[in-house]
Amino acid sequence: MPDEMARPLIRGRGEGGGSRQLEASTAELGTPVVGILGTGDFSRSLASRLVASGYHVVVGSRNPKRSAALFPNEAEVMSQMEAVSQADLVFVAVFPEHHSTLVELKPTLAGKTLVDVSNGLTINRDGPSNAEQLAELFPESSVVKGFNTISAWTLQVGPRDGSRQIFLCGNNSKAKSSVMQLCRRMGFVPVDMGLLSFSLEIENLPLYLFPSWRVPVFCTLSLFAFFYVYNFLRDVLQPYVTAGKSVFYKMPVETVNVTLPAVALVMLSLVYLPGLCAAVLQLWWGTKYNRFPSWLDRWLNSRKQLGLCSFWCAALHAIYSLCLPMRKSARFKLLLAAQQVKAGDDVWVDAAVWRMELYLSAGIMALGLLSLLAVTSLPSVANTVNWREFSFIQSTLGYCALSTATVHTLLYGWDRAFDPARYRFLMPPTFMLVLVLPTAVLLGRLALLAPCVARRLGRIRRGWEKSRQLHFAVPHYGCRNGLEEVSNV
Predict the structure, then answer these.
(1) What does the DSSP 8-state code read for residue 324?
(2) Which residues does 322 contact at the CB level (< 8 Å), separation at least 6?
(3) Please, are residues 467 and 441 in contact by the beta-carbon 8 Å criterion?
(4) Distance (Å, rounded) from C-alpha 451 to C-alpha 447?
Protein backbone atom coordinates (compact mmCIF):
# COMPACT_ATOMS: atom_id res chain seq x y z
CA MET A 1 0.00 0.00 0.00
CA PRO A 2 1.60 3.33 -0.98
CA ASP A 3 2.36 5.92 1.65
CA GLU A 4 -0.23 8.69 1.22
CA MET A 5 1.74 11.10 3.39
CA ALA A 6 4.76 10.78 1.10
CA ARG A 7 2.79 12.03 -1.94
CA PRO A 8 3.51 15.73 -2.65
CA LEU A 9 0.59 18.18 -2.47
CA ILE A 10 1.61 19.93 -5.69
CA ARG A 11 2.77 17.80 -8.56
CA GLY A 12 5.56 18.93 -10.77
CA ARG A 13 4.81 20.33 -14.21
CA GLY A 14 6.31 17.26 -15.82
CA GLU A 15 3.86 14.90 -14.16
CA GLY A 16 0.51 14.00 -15.57
CA GLY A 17 1.17 15.26 -19.07
CA GLY A 18 2.18 18.73 -17.90
CA SER A 19 -0.96 19.36 -15.80
CA ARG A 20 -0.56 21.31 -12.58
CA GLN A 21 -2.98 19.59 -10.24
CA LEU A 22 -3.56 21.24 -6.90
CA GLU A 23 -4.79 18.35 -4.79
CA ALA A 24 -5.34 20.62 -1.85
CA SER A 25 -7.78 22.62 -3.93
CA THR A 26 -9.51 19.67 -5.51
CA ALA A 27 -10.00 18.13 -2.15
CA GLU A 28 -12.17 21.03 -1.08
CA LEU A 29 -15.73 19.93 -1.41
CA GLY A 30 -18.17 22.33 -3.04
CA THR A 31 -15.55 24.37 -4.89
CA PRO A 32 -16.97 25.08 -8.37
CA VAL A 33 -14.88 23.76 -11.23
CA VAL A 34 -14.83 25.98 -14.31
CA GLY A 35 -13.29 24.89 -17.58
CA ILE A 36 -11.72 27.06 -20.26
CA LEU A 37 -11.09 25.90 -23.81
CA GLY A 38 -8.35 28.02 -25.35
CA THR A 39 -5.04 29.50 -24.23
CA GLY A 40 -5.09 33.01 -25.69
CA ASP A 41 -4.86 36.35 -23.91
CA PHE A 42 -8.52 36.36 -22.98
CA SER A 43 -8.28 32.82 -21.59
CA ARG A 44 -5.32 33.70 -19.41
CA SER A 45 -7.01 36.83 -18.03
CA LEU A 46 -10.24 34.90 -17.47
CA ALA A 47 -8.39 32.16 -15.61
CA SER A 48 -6.67 34.70 -13.36
CA ARG A 49 -9.97 36.40 -12.49
CA LEU A 50 -11.75 33.08 -11.84
CA VAL A 51 -8.93 31.88 -9.58
CA ALA A 52 -9.03 35.17 -7.67
CA SER A 53 -12.79 34.71 -7.25
CA GLY A 54 -12.34 31.32 -5.59
CA TYR A 55 -13.06 28.98 -8.50
CA HIS A 56 -11.08 25.89 -9.36
CA VAL A 57 -10.03 26.37 -13.00
CA VAL A 58 -9.10 23.71 -15.51
CA VAL A 59 -7.78 24.81 -18.89
CA GLY A 60 -8.06 22.63 -21.98
CA SER A 61 -5.19 23.00 -24.42
CA ARG A 62 -4.00 21.15 -27.51
CA ASN A 63 -0.45 21.47 -26.15
CA PRO A 64 -0.59 21.49 -22.32
CA LYS A 65 3.19 21.41 -21.78
CA ARG A 66 3.78 24.54 -23.84
CA SER A 67 0.83 26.48 -22.38
CA ALA A 68 1.27 25.58 -18.73
CA ALA A 69 3.69 28.41 -17.95
CA LEU A 70 1.26 31.05 -19.26
CA PHE A 71 -1.42 30.46 -16.62
CA PRO A 72 -1.46 31.07 -12.86
CA ASN A 73 -0.13 28.26 -10.71
CA GLU A 74 -3.57 27.60 -9.23
CA ALA A 75 -5.03 26.71 -12.64
CA GLU A 76 -4.60 23.22 -14.07
CA VAL A 77 -3.60 22.99 -17.72
CA MET A 78 -4.48 19.69 -19.34
CA SER A 79 -5.87 18.28 -22.53
CA GLN A 80 -9.21 19.49 -23.77
CA MET A 81 -10.89 16.15 -23.12
CA GLU A 82 -9.64 16.06 -19.51
CA ALA A 83 -10.73 19.65 -18.88
CA VAL A 84 -14.30 19.29 -20.14
CA SER A 85 -14.75 16.00 -18.30
CA GLN A 86 -14.00 17.71 -14.96
CA ALA A 87 -15.90 20.97 -15.43
CA ASP A 88 -19.64 21.56 -15.32
CA LEU A 89 -19.39 25.03 -16.86
CA VAL A 90 -17.04 25.54 -19.81
CA PHE A 91 -15.90 28.79 -21.41
CA VAL A 92 -15.36 28.38 -25.15
CA ALA A 93 -12.56 30.90 -25.72
CA VAL A 94 -11.49 29.88 -29.22
CA PHE A 95 -12.10 31.68 -32.49
CA PRO A 96 -15.45 30.87 -34.13
CA GLU A 97 -13.77 29.30 -37.14
CA HIS A 98 -12.22 26.73 -34.78
CA HIS A 99 -15.49 25.67 -33.16
CA SER A 100 -15.70 22.71 -35.51
CA THR A 101 -12.46 21.30 -34.04
CA LEU A 102 -14.29 20.73 -30.76
CA VAL A 103 -16.87 18.33 -32.22
CA GLU A 104 -15.01 15.33 -30.80
CA LEU A 105 -15.85 16.68 -27.33
CA LYS A 106 -19.61 16.56 -28.02
CA PRO A 107 -20.34 13.43 -25.92
CA THR A 108 -18.43 14.82 -22.96
CA LEU A 109 -20.02 18.26 -23.21
CA ALA A 110 -23.57 16.87 -23.30
CA GLY A 111 -25.69 18.41 -20.54
CA LYS A 112 -23.10 21.03 -19.63
CA THR A 113 -23.18 24.81 -19.92
CA LEU A 114 -21.07 26.40 -22.66
CA VAL A 115 -20.27 30.10 -22.46
CA ASP A 116 -19.41 31.55 -25.87
CA VAL A 117 -17.12 34.60 -25.56
CA SER A 118 -16.34 35.02 -29.25
CA ASN A 119 -16.78 38.11 -31.42
CA GLY A 120 -16.95 38.59 -35.16
CA LEU A 121 -14.58 40.61 -37.31
CA THR A 122 -17.33 42.70 -38.88
CA ILE A 123 -20.85 43.70 -37.90
CA ASN A 124 -23.22 40.85 -38.72
CA ARG A 125 -26.76 42.03 -39.40
CA ASP A 126 -28.12 38.92 -41.08
CA GLY A 127 -27.06 36.11 -38.73
CA PRO A 128 -26.70 33.48 -37.54
CA SER A 129 -24.53 34.50 -34.61
CA ASN A 130 -21.46 32.62 -33.40
CA ALA A 131 -23.38 31.46 -30.33
CA GLU A 132 -26.24 30.12 -32.44
CA GLN A 133 -23.80 28.20 -34.64
CA LEU A 134 -22.14 26.79 -31.52
CA ALA A 135 -25.56 25.70 -30.24
CA GLU A 136 -26.15 23.87 -33.53
CA LEU A 137 -22.82 22.05 -33.16
CA PHE A 138 -23.63 21.06 -29.56
CA PRO A 139 -27.41 20.60 -29.38
CA GLU A 140 -27.22 18.64 -26.11
CA SER A 141 -25.36 21.44 -24.34
CA SER A 142 -26.77 24.72 -23.00
CA VAL A 143 -25.09 27.65 -24.75
CA VAL A 144 -24.96 31.06 -23.04
CA LYS A 145 -23.60 34.11 -24.80
CA GLY A 146 -21.57 36.46 -22.62
CA PHE A 147 -18.24 38.01 -21.60
CA ASN A 148 -17.59 39.20 -25.17
CA THR A 149 -18.12 42.88 -24.37
CA ILE A 150 -15.27 43.14 -21.85
CA SER A 151 -11.57 43.06 -22.59
CA ALA A 152 -8.78 40.92 -21.24
CA TRP A 153 -7.48 44.00 -19.44
CA THR A 154 -10.78 44.45 -17.60
CA LEU A 155 -10.65 40.83 -16.49
CA GLN A 156 -7.09 41.25 -15.24
CA VAL A 157 -7.60 44.39 -13.17
CA GLY A 158 -11.15 43.57 -12.14
CA PRO A 159 -14.35 45.59 -12.56
CA ARG A 160 -12.97 48.68 -10.82
CA ASP A 161 -11.22 50.07 -13.91
CA GLY A 162 -13.57 48.80 -16.60
CA SER A 163 -17.23 48.32 -17.37
CA ARG A 164 -19.04 46.33 -14.72
CA GLN A 165 -21.86 45.14 -16.95
CA ILE A 166 -21.79 41.78 -18.71
CA PHE A 167 -24.58 41.10 -21.20
CA LEU A 168 -25.88 37.53 -21.21
CA CYS A 169 -28.47 35.63 -23.21
CA GLY A 170 -29.44 32.00 -23.53
CA ASN A 171 -32.39 29.66 -23.93
CA ASN A 172 -31.78 27.61 -20.77
CA SER A 173 -32.73 29.65 -17.71
CA LYS A 174 -30.86 27.35 -15.30
CA ALA A 175 -27.63 27.60 -17.29
CA LYS A 176 -28.03 31.35 -17.58
CA SER A 177 -28.59 31.65 -13.83
CA SER A 178 -25.38 29.76 -13.10
CA VAL A 179 -23.43 32.11 -15.38
CA MET A 180 -25.05 35.14 -13.74
CA GLN A 181 -24.02 33.82 -10.32
CA LEU A 182 -20.48 33.41 -11.61
CA CYS A 183 -20.52 37.02 -12.89
CA ARG A 184 -21.56 38.36 -9.52
CA ARG A 185 -18.90 36.37 -7.72
CA MET A 186 -16.30 37.84 -10.08
CA GLY A 187 -17.48 41.34 -9.19
CA PHE A 188 -19.41 42.11 -12.39
CA VAL A 189 -23.06 42.98 -12.94
CA PRO A 190 -24.88 40.52 -15.23
CA VAL A 191 -27.55 41.88 -17.55
CA ASP A 192 -30.05 39.31 -18.85
CA MET A 193 -30.82 40.18 -22.48
CA GLY A 194 -33.22 37.30 -23.06
CA LEU A 195 -33.05 34.32 -25.40
CA LEU A 196 -30.09 33.22 -27.48
CA SER A 197 -31.61 34.90 -30.51
CA PHE A 198 -30.38 38.20 -29.05
CA SER A 199 -26.77 36.97 -29.20
CA LEU A 200 -26.30 38.57 -32.62
CA GLU A 201 -26.83 42.02 -31.13
CA ILE A 202 -24.51 41.25 -28.20
CA GLU A 203 -21.79 40.14 -30.62
CA ASN A 204 -22.18 43.35 -32.61
CA LEU A 205 -21.88 45.61 -29.55
CA PRO A 206 -18.04 45.63 -29.36
CA LEU A 207 -17.81 46.36 -33.10
CA TYR A 208 -19.75 49.62 -33.04
CA LEU A 209 -17.49 52.68 -33.19
CA PHE A 210 -19.11 55.35 -30.98
CA PRO A 211 -22.61 54.87 -32.40
CA SER A 212 -24.18 57.48 -30.12
CA TRP A 213 -21.48 60.03 -30.98
CA ARG A 214 -21.74 60.04 -34.76
CA VAL A 215 -24.51 62.61 -35.15
CA PRO A 216 -23.23 64.97 -32.40
CA VAL A 217 -19.69 64.88 -33.77
CA PHE A 218 -20.99 65.41 -37.31
CA CYS A 219 -23.03 68.40 -36.11
CA THR A 220 -20.00 69.82 -34.32
CA LEU A 221 -17.73 69.47 -37.35
CA SER A 222 -20.38 70.83 -39.70
CA LEU A 223 -21.00 73.89 -37.55
CA PHE A 224 -17.28 74.44 -37.17
CA ALA A 225 -16.76 74.28 -40.94
CA PHE A 226 -19.64 76.69 -41.56
CA PHE A 227 -18.60 79.30 -39.01
CA TYR A 228 -14.92 78.98 -39.89
CA VAL A 229 -15.61 79.69 -43.57
CA TYR A 230 -17.98 82.50 -42.58
CA ASN A 231 -15.35 84.13 -40.35
CA PHE A 232 -12.66 83.60 -42.99
CA LEU A 233 -14.72 85.43 -45.60
CA ARG A 234 -15.48 88.34 -43.27
CA ASP A 235 -12.23 88.78 -41.33
CA VAL A 236 -9.54 87.50 -43.70
CA LEU A 237 -10.68 87.57 -47.29
CA GLN A 238 -12.65 90.84 -47.20
CA PRO A 239 -9.69 93.04 -46.09
CA TYR A 240 -7.52 91.43 -48.75
CA VAL A 241 -10.06 91.96 -51.55
CA THR A 242 -11.14 95.48 -50.66
CA ALA A 243 -7.93 97.00 -49.29
CA GLY A 244 -5.19 94.58 -50.30
CA LYS A 245 -4.38 93.94 -46.64
CA SER A 246 -3.04 90.46 -45.96
CA VAL A 247 -4.17 89.07 -42.62
CA PHE A 248 -4.01 85.40 -43.48
CA TYR A 249 -1.92 84.86 -40.37
CA LYS A 250 -5.20 84.94 -38.41
CA MET A 251 -6.37 81.63 -39.85
CA PRO A 252 -4.58 79.14 -37.50
CA VAL A 253 -5.42 80.80 -34.17
CA GLU A 254 -7.62 83.88 -34.22
CA THR A 255 -10.17 82.62 -36.75
CA VAL A 256 -10.37 79.27 -34.94
CA ASN A 257 -10.78 81.05 -31.62
CA VAL A 258 -13.69 83.11 -32.95
CA THR A 259 -15.30 79.99 -34.42
CA LEU A 260 -15.15 77.75 -31.33
CA PRO A 261 -17.48 79.78 -29.06
CA ALA A 262 -20.01 80.04 -31.88
CA VAL A 263 -20.08 76.26 -32.19
CA ALA A 264 -20.20 75.80 -28.41
CA LEU A 265 -23.22 78.08 -27.96
CA VAL A 266 -25.18 76.58 -30.85
CA MET A 267 -24.44 73.04 -29.62
CA LEU A 268 -25.55 73.97 -26.11
CA SER A 269 -28.79 75.32 -27.57
CA LEU A 270 -29.29 72.03 -29.37
CA VAL A 271 -29.15 70.28 -25.98
CA TYR A 272 -32.27 72.04 -24.69
CA LEU A 273 -34.20 72.57 -27.90
CA PRO A 274 -35.53 68.95 -28.13
CA GLY A 275 -36.95 69.20 -24.61
CA LEU A 276 -38.92 72.25 -25.68
CA CYS A 277 -40.13 70.45 -28.80
CA ALA A 278 -41.26 67.51 -26.69
CA ALA A 279 -43.12 69.82 -24.30
CA VAL A 280 -44.88 71.58 -27.19
CA LEU A 281 -45.93 68.23 -28.66
CA GLN A 282 -47.33 67.07 -25.33
CA LEU A 283 -49.26 70.32 -24.98
CA TRP A 284 -50.57 69.93 -28.53
CA TRP A 285 -51.59 66.30 -28.04
CA GLY A 286 -52.92 66.85 -24.53
CA THR A 287 -51.30 63.63 -23.31
CA LYS A 288 -47.92 62.17 -22.50
CA TYR A 289 -48.77 58.69 -23.76
CA ASN A 290 -48.10 59.32 -27.46
CA ARG A 291 -44.70 58.34 -28.74
CA PHE A 292 -42.46 61.10 -29.98
CA PRO A 293 -41.35 60.99 -33.62
CA SER A 294 -38.27 58.85 -34.17
CA TRP A 295 -36.11 61.86 -35.03
CA LEU A 296 -37.05 63.54 -31.77
CA ASP A 297 -36.40 60.35 -29.82
CA ARG A 298 -32.91 60.12 -31.26
CA TRP A 299 -32.35 63.81 -30.60
CA LEU A 300 -33.41 63.47 -26.96
CA ASN A 301 -31.08 60.50 -26.50
CA SER A 302 -28.15 62.49 -27.94
CA ARG A 303 -28.36 65.42 -25.52
CA LYS A 304 -25.49 64.20 -23.35
CA GLN A 305 -23.15 63.87 -26.33
CA LEU A 306 -24.24 67.26 -27.69
CA GLY A 307 -23.52 68.86 -24.34
CA LEU A 308 -20.08 67.29 -24.05
CA CYS A 309 -19.21 68.48 -27.57
CA SER A 310 -20.31 71.98 -26.52
CA PHE A 311 -18.11 71.79 -23.43
CA TRP A 312 -15.17 70.59 -25.52
CA CYS A 313 -15.47 73.57 -27.87
CA ALA A 314 -15.82 75.98 -24.94
CA ALA A 315 -12.74 74.53 -23.23
CA LEU A 316 -10.73 74.83 -26.44
CA HIS A 317 -11.93 78.44 -26.79
CA ALA A 318 -10.62 79.19 -23.28
CA ILE A 319 -7.24 77.62 -24.07
CA TYR A 320 -6.94 79.49 -27.37
CA SER A 321 -7.87 82.76 -25.64
CA LEU A 322 -5.17 82.26 -23.03
CA CYS A 323 -2.64 81.68 -25.81
CA LEU A 324 -3.55 84.81 -27.80
CA PRO A 325 -1.00 87.09 -26.05
CA MET A 326 1.78 84.61 -26.90
CA ARG A 327 1.49 85.34 -30.62
CA LYS A 328 4.02 87.64 -32.25
CA SER A 329 1.23 89.62 -33.89
CA ALA A 330 -0.32 90.29 -30.47
CA ARG A 331 3.00 91.47 -29.05
CA PHE A 332 3.38 93.77 -32.04
CA LYS A 333 -0.02 95.33 -31.30
CA LEU A 334 1.04 95.83 -27.68
CA LEU A 335 4.14 97.68 -28.86
CA LEU A 336 2.01 99.94 -31.05
CA ALA A 337 -0.30 100.67 -28.11
CA ALA A 338 2.69 101.46 -25.90
CA GLN A 339 4.00 103.88 -28.52
CA GLN A 340 0.61 105.60 -28.67
CA VAL A 341 0.58 105.99 -24.89
CA LYS A 342 4.14 107.32 -24.97
CA ALA A 343 3.14 109.81 -27.64
CA GLY A 344 0.39 111.13 -25.36
CA ASP A 345 -2.58 109.62 -27.18
CA ASP A 346 -5.57 108.77 -24.99
CA VAL A 347 -6.26 105.11 -25.72
CA TRP A 348 -8.39 104.49 -22.61
CA VAL A 349 -12.06 104.09 -23.51
CA ASP A 350 -14.36 103.44 -20.55
CA ALA A 351 -17.01 101.68 -22.62
CA ALA A 352 -14.48 99.28 -24.17
CA VAL A 353 -12.92 98.54 -20.80
CA TRP A 354 -16.28 97.80 -19.19
CA ARG A 355 -17.31 95.66 -22.14
CA MET A 356 -14.15 93.55 -21.85
CA GLU A 357 -14.46 93.13 -18.07
CA LEU A 358 -18.10 92.06 -18.23
CA TYR A 359 -17.48 89.91 -21.30
CA LEU A 360 -14.68 87.95 -19.62
CA SER A 361 -16.60 87.57 -16.35
CA ALA A 362 -19.66 86.16 -18.12
CA GLY A 363 -17.48 83.81 -20.17
CA ILE A 364 -15.74 82.45 -17.07
CA MET A 365 -19.09 81.88 -15.35
CA ALA A 366 -20.48 80.11 -18.41
CA LEU A 367 -17.44 77.84 -18.66
CA GLY A 368 -17.68 77.04 -14.95
CA LEU A 369 -21.33 76.02 -15.27
CA LEU A 370 -20.55 73.97 -18.38
CA SER A 371 -17.79 72.20 -16.47
CA LEU A 372 -20.26 71.31 -13.71
CA LEU A 373 -22.69 69.91 -16.28
CA ALA A 374 -19.92 67.86 -17.92
CA VAL A 375 -18.72 66.42 -14.61
CA THR A 376 -22.19 65.42 -13.44
CA SER A 377 -22.83 63.65 -16.73
CA LEU A 378 -20.14 61.10 -15.84
CA PRO A 379 -21.74 57.85 -14.62
CA SER A 380 -19.51 57.70 -11.54
CA VAL A 381 -20.77 61.14 -10.47
CA ALA A 382 -24.37 60.79 -11.66
CA ASN A 383 -24.77 57.64 -9.56
CA THR A 384 -24.03 59.60 -6.39
CA VAL A 385 -26.95 62.03 -6.77
CA ASN A 386 -30.66 61.36 -6.81
CA TRP A 387 -32.95 62.16 -9.72
CA ARG A 388 -34.07 65.52 -8.36
CA GLU A 389 -30.49 66.68 -7.83
CA PHE A 390 -29.44 65.44 -11.26
CA SER A 391 -32.41 67.17 -12.89
CA PHE A 392 -31.67 70.40 -11.05
CA ILE A 393 -28.07 70.41 -12.28
CA GLN A 394 -28.74 69.37 -15.85
CA SER A 395 -31.90 71.42 -16.32
CA THR A 396 -31.86 74.46 -14.04
CA LEU A 397 -28.13 75.04 -14.02
CA GLY A 398 -28.02 74.04 -17.67
CA TYR A 399 -30.36 76.87 -18.60
CA CYS A 400 -28.30 79.17 -16.39
CA ALA A 401 -25.24 78.16 -18.41
CA LEU A 402 -27.09 78.82 -21.66
CA SER A 403 -28.24 82.22 -20.41
CA THR A 404 -24.77 83.18 -19.20
CA ALA A 405 -23.19 82.10 -22.48
CA THR A 406 -25.77 84.15 -24.36
CA VAL A 407 -24.96 87.20 -22.23
CA HIS A 408 -21.28 86.54 -22.89
CA THR A 409 -21.95 86.67 -26.63
CA LEU A 410 -24.11 89.80 -26.32
CA LEU A 411 -21.37 91.59 -24.40
CA TYR A 412 -18.89 90.54 -27.06
CA GLY A 413 -21.10 92.07 -29.73
CA TRP A 414 -21.97 95.18 -27.67
CA ASP A 415 -22.92 97.85 -30.27
CA ARG A 416 -21.21 96.21 -33.23
CA ALA A 417 -24.54 95.12 -34.69
CA PHE A 418 -25.34 98.78 -35.39
CA ASP A 419 -22.01 99.58 -37.05
CA PRO A 420 -22.35 99.44 -40.87
CA ALA A 421 -18.60 98.78 -41.18
CA ARG A 422 -19.11 95.42 -39.47
CA TYR A 423 -21.26 94.14 -42.34
CA ARG A 424 -18.41 92.99 -44.53
CA PHE A 425 -19.47 91.60 -47.90
CA LEU A 426 -22.97 92.50 -46.63
CA MET A 427 -22.60 89.67 -44.13
CA PRO A 428 -23.74 90.38 -40.55
CA PRO A 429 -21.31 89.80 -37.67
CA THR A 430 -20.95 86.18 -36.62
CA PHE A 431 -22.38 86.73 -33.15
CA MET A 432 -25.69 87.83 -34.66
CA LEU A 433 -26.08 84.46 -36.39
CA VAL A 434 -25.04 82.62 -33.25
CA LEU A 435 -27.58 84.36 -31.04
CA VAL A 436 -30.60 83.28 -33.09
CA LEU A 437 -30.93 79.74 -31.75
CA PRO A 438 -30.11 80.32 -28.04
CA THR A 439 -32.42 83.33 -27.96
CA ALA A 440 -35.23 81.23 -29.43
CA VAL A 441 -34.60 78.48 -26.87
CA LEU A 442 -34.59 80.89 -23.93
CA LEU A 443 -37.79 82.58 -25.15
CA GLY A 444 -39.43 79.18 -25.56
CA ARG A 445 -38.36 78.31 -22.04
CA LEU A 446 -39.91 81.50 -20.69
CA ALA A 447 -43.12 80.69 -22.55
CA LEU A 448 -43.31 77.29 -20.86
CA LEU A 449 -42.85 78.95 -17.47
CA ALA A 450 -46.03 80.99 -17.91
CA PRO A 451 -48.42 79.87 -15.13
CA CYS A 452 -51.20 78.73 -17.47
CA VAL A 453 -48.81 76.74 -19.66
CA ALA A 454 -46.75 75.29 -16.79
CA ARG A 455 -49.93 74.20 -14.96
CA ARG A 456 -51.30 72.40 -18.00
CA LEU A 457 -47.97 70.76 -18.78
CA GLY A 458 -47.61 69.67 -15.17
CA ARG A 459 -51.03 67.98 -15.28
CA ILE A 460 -50.12 66.20 -18.53
CA ARG A 461 -46.85 64.95 -17.03
CA ARG A 462 -48.85 63.49 -14.13
CA GLY A 463 -51.16 61.51 -16.40
CA TRP A 464 -53.94 63.93 -17.37
CA GLU A 465 -55.27 63.50 -20.91
CA LYS A 466 -57.28 65.97 -22.94
CA SER A 467 -59.43 63.22 -24.46
CA ARG A 468 -60.34 61.81 -21.05
CA GLN A 469 -62.18 64.07 -18.66
CA LEU A 470 -60.13 63.32 -15.56
CA HIS A 471 -59.90 66.20 -13.13
CA PHE A 472 -57.35 66.38 -10.35
CA ALA A 473 -55.20 68.99 -8.68
CA VAL A 474 -51.44 69.00 -8.91
CA PRO A 475 -49.94 68.89 -5.38
CA HIS A 476 -48.42 72.12 -4.15
CA TYR A 477 -44.99 70.58 -3.64
CA GLY A 478 -44.83 69.93 -7.39
CA CYS A 479 -44.71 73.68 -8.03
CA ARG A 480 -41.82 74.46 -5.75
CA ASN A 481 -39.39 74.26 -8.61
CA GLY A 482 -41.13 75.32 -11.78
CA LEU A 483 -37.92 75.12 -13.78
CA GLU A 484 -37.61 71.45 -13.05
CA GLU A 485 -41.31 70.70 -13.50
CA VAL A 486 -41.46 71.58 -17.19
CA SER A 487 -38.14 70.14 -18.30
CA ASN A 488 -38.10 66.51 -17.19
CA VAL A 489 -38.45 65.08 -20.70
Answers:
(1) G
(2) none
(3) no
(4) 9
Q: Residues of 415-427 as b/e, b for ≥16 C-beta within 10 angstroms?
A: eeeeeeebebeee
> Quick one: which H or E segment has residue 281?
helix 254-285
- The DSSP annotation for 195-251 comes to SGGGHHHHHHGGG-SSGGGHHHHHHHHHHHHHHHHHHHIIIIIHHHHHH----GGGT
For 319, counting Cβ atoms within 10 Å of its Cβ (0-12 exposed, 13-18 middle, 19+ buried), the class is: exposed
Cis before residue 128, ω within 30 degrees of 0?
Answer: yes
pLDDT, position 335: 77
Q: What is the DSSP letter of 97?
A: G
Cα gap 330→334, rounded to integer Å:
6
Give CA 76 to chain center in angstroms: 39
> Cα(321)–Cα(261) distance, rounded to whole angstroms?
11
Which residues of the chain have a pLDDT value below 50? 1-29, 477-489
Q: In the prediction, which pLDDT does 309 show?
A: 97
Are 257 and 326 spatial neighbours (Cβ–Cβ below 8 Å)?
Answer: no
* 201-241 pLDDT per residue, tens: 999 999 988 888 999 999 999 999 999 999 999 999 999 99
Give me the helix-helix angle, 254-285 and 303-323, nearest 10°: 160
